[in-house]
Amino acid sequence: MTTANTAAADVDVPEIGATSDAGSRPLDDDFRTVGNVRVGDPRMTCSDVNVYYGDKHAIKHVDLDIAENEVIAMIGPSGCGKSTFLRCLNRMNDTIEICRVTGEIKLDDQDIYDKRLDVVPLRAQVGMVFQKPNPFPKSIYDNIAYGPRIHGLATGRADLDEVVERSLTKAGLWEEVKDRLDQPGTGLSGGQQQRLCIARTIAVEPEVILMDEPCSALDPIATAKVEELIDELRENYTIAIVTHSMQQAARVSQRTAYFHLGHLVEVGETTQIFTNPSHKLTEDYITGRFG
């Protein structure tokens, strides 16, 4: 694992199909996503992606592009597969023994499931921020410096100092912690810890940042700061975020993808998804009929 990741213990096999009766209508195996799954400037391209947990078919024939310098929000009821799909994008599902992924996922032109590919640099290129802040039991400084050290991105203390300041500044945390960099990262507030984890991800110079419900454990003020940060980061990074909050998806994303029982039901511009969804299941979820 790199600084962009947490231990495998943070990755739980989801309960597949945990929706209410109103939202449990199955879709045929030959179902095709409503909306345009392709974009003109993809940073990641997913084709016929399937995920199996043993005999359970958790993700079913998903096609989806993730555009450069875009925030795409993945929404849907619990157990719909959105977090499972997100974890496919940097092979975090490899940490689950019974998990099997088929199909093709490319970062630019590189198939990330090529058996010859080293997942360590991949997880630096496609970093992940998890639901619960998980700073290392180290100082604030060493939380940020750890990744650049092991990846050889900084050659000396001066280089590390620059990376630490730059990363914390991008994460909107520098002014709050610059005078206590030697103190434990675990001593920060929850919102500060999450921004520390974002800074830790940025420090290894990723191309894509994955966020799995990054604000679910935060209070409204901390959530607002992280959402503002996400909007700023979009200028330099491609971001995919899983969220249970439709309001958050509407605030931070340009495109939204709605998942239902393993299927990608609909994808489109966020405004269109929330104001004029094309599929009945999307409309039912958006309007609160189930979820």
Strand order of the main beta sheet, please?
A: 6-7-8-3-9-10
| Rg, Cα atoms, Å | 19 Å
The low-confidence runs, each spanning 5 or more residues with pLDDT under 50, are: 1-22
The strand count comes to 10
Decide which structural class fits the backbone. Answer: alpha/beta
Strand content: 15-25%
Q: Let me know the average pLDDT.
A: 90
CATH class: Alpha Beta
Name of the CATH architecture: 3-Layer(aba) Sandwich
* Biggest β-sheet strands, sense, barrel: 6 strands, mixed
The first-to-last residue Cα distance is 33 Å
Total of helices: 10
Oligomer: single chain
| CATH homologous superfamily descriptor | P-loop containing nucleotide triphosphate hydrolases
N-to-C series of helices and strands: EEEHEEHEHHHHEHEHEEHH
The total number of structural domains is 1
The coarse overall form would be globular
**Helix content, binned percent:** 25-40%
